[in-house]
Predict the 3D structure of the following.
Amino acid sequence: MIVHITQSVVDVWNKFKQYRANSTEACGILIGHYDMDCTRIWINNVTVPMKADIRKKTYFFLKDNGHQKILNSIFKSSGNKLLLLGTWHTHPEKSPTPSMYGEVNDVAEWKKIIASNKAIPDFCFAIVGTQENSIYIRYQNKFERLNRIVKV
C-alpha cells in the first residue's frame, strides 16, 4: 500500500507538532480517496482540532461535530469521491508509535473506529511526530506502519 499526502496536509500537521513540554495532542480526520484496486491511498484534506474536541498531553477525543460537517461538504463537492480515510493525531516523540498504555490506547481506539465503519475498505491512521510522521493500516488484524509515503 502506498500513501500519497498533499503538501497542504503536511503543512497543517507541521503547525500542530508537539515541540513544547506543555503541548496537547492535536487531532482531526483524514479525507481522501483510494485507487480502484485499493493499492494506493491519497490523503487530500484533514480537519484540525475544534472547540468541542478534548485535547490533553497524552490523549485526544474527537468530539466536535464540525469534523463531520466538513467531511460531508467535501464529499458532496467532490462528487462523492473524497471520503473519510481515518484519523490523525500528534505525539511528542521523534518517530511516533501507537500508544499502548495510558488514558487512551491508540490501537484499541482504531479498532473501535473500524468496527463502526465497515464500509471503508482500509482505514489509515496517522501519528504526527516531532521529526517524522507515521501512518498505520490494519493488515491481518494487526496495525502495520506503512513505509511508502509520497508527498505530492
Summary: The longest helix spans residues 66-77. Helices lie at 7-15, 66-77, 106-115. The two ends are 16 Å apart (CA to CA).
